[in-house]
Amino acid sequence: MKVLVIGAGNMGFTYAEGMASCPLLSKHKLRIYDTDPKKIETLSQDDRFEVYHNLEDCLPKSDVVFVAVKPYHSEALFEQMKPMLNKEQVIVSLMAGVTIDTIQQKLNAKKVIRTMPNLPAQVGKGVTSYTESEDVSKVELILVRNLLDTTGTSIHVDTETFIDASTGISGSGPAYVFYFMQSMLEAALKMGFSDYDSKVLVSNTFEGAIELFNQSNISPERWINKVASKGGTTQAAIDSMEDNNIKELIQEAAYAAFDRAVELGKDK
Ligand SMILES: NC(=O)C1=CN([C@@H]2O[C@H](COP(=O)(O)OP(=O)(O)OC[C@H]3O[C@@H](n4cnc5c(N)ncnc54)[C@H](O)[C@@H]3O)[C@@H](O)[C@H]2O)C=CC1
Ligand SMILES: O=C(O)[C@@H]1CCC=N1
């Protein structure tokens, strides 16, 4: 099986790295195509990949094609791809907001899998949601799932609305966590800790809390109760967050990303 990744940026390259070690690709090296000459030059020195700077040389003979360019680059790319495709190829999109219908129409393609990955895929801890057009067979879907899972874990969803919704939760979600981390780091610095100590305090607090959550069946709400003593310090912090409606504001932010994903789909 020949797999091509178009766009070797944050997501495309991460997927390429994950898939390169997949046993399904033992016969053929993973193919990468990008328009950035500097990227092509660097990637060409990596013998895990077959690197291309002409679409004609790689697209027609690829069985599965991952599209990982920015949504606003998709229009021009699709125009270029269309005459080189055949109906048996499976197109896997990693792009936010671009709908299956748009991809099918612009590419005259039948088999399309739309996914929403996230950046922790870079360390094998990604989560990808995916859904497919009618023409994708069960075997093709399992095969692509195996490829997606090389970067972490995946969930199948029945409709594209859940792809847009997972954009608001997991796709954009790492940025919300980093936002929270950055806020805590800045608070630690203000309190007088050094850069190094602030980082140690904050990163271990996040890591430890996640580990507790993952190793238990307890909701975050109940974990909060385990940290907070009545009338104590944590309660003072949680009360401050509740007074400022932080929970509602975070939910609003997640919905803003969800809505933007839907909107991106309508822009096309
Ligand atoms: N960065 C993230 O955390 C996530 C990104 N995504 C989606 O992944 C896609 C890519 O995002 P990033 O990797 O962050 O972007 P990026 O800017 O890091 O990478 C895009 C790559 O595409 C290349 N490119 C642009 N036009 C091209 C063309 N016509 N043909 C071939 N290559 C071309 C660029 O040179 C670049 O290497 C986006 O559609 C985004 O919605 C989805 C979930 C998470
Ligand atoms: O911000 C974006 O549009 C992409 C999709 C999810 C994460 N990054």
TrEMBL record:
Pathway: Amino-acid biosynthesis; L-proline biosynthesis; L-proline from L-glutamate 5-semialdehyde: step 1/1
Pyrroline-5-carboxylate reductase dimerisation domain segment(s): 160-264
Top EC class, one word: oxidoreductase
InterPro entries: 6-PGluconate_DH-like_C_sf, NAD(P)-bd_dom_sf, P5C_Rdtase_cat_N, P5CR_dimer, Pyrroline-COOH_reductase
Keyword field: Amino-acid biosynthesis, Cytoplasm, NADP, Oxidoreductase, Proline biosynthesis
Gene Ontology terms for molecular function: pyrroline-5-carboxylate reductase activity
The protein's Enzyme Commission number: 1.5.1.2
A Pfam family the protein falls into: F420_oxidored
GO biological process, one term: L-proline biosynthetic process
Reaction equations catalysed: L-proline + NADP(+) = (S)-1-pyrroline-5-carboxylate + NADPH + 2 H(+); L-proline + NAD(+) = (S)-1-pyrroline-5-carboxylate + NADH + 2 H(+)
Role description: Catalyzes the reduction of 1-pyrroline-5-carboxylate (PCA) to L-proline.
Name by which UniProt lists this protein: Pyrroline-5-carboxylate reductase
Organism lineage string: Bacteria, Pseudomonadati, Bacteroidota, Flavobacteriia, Flavobacteriales
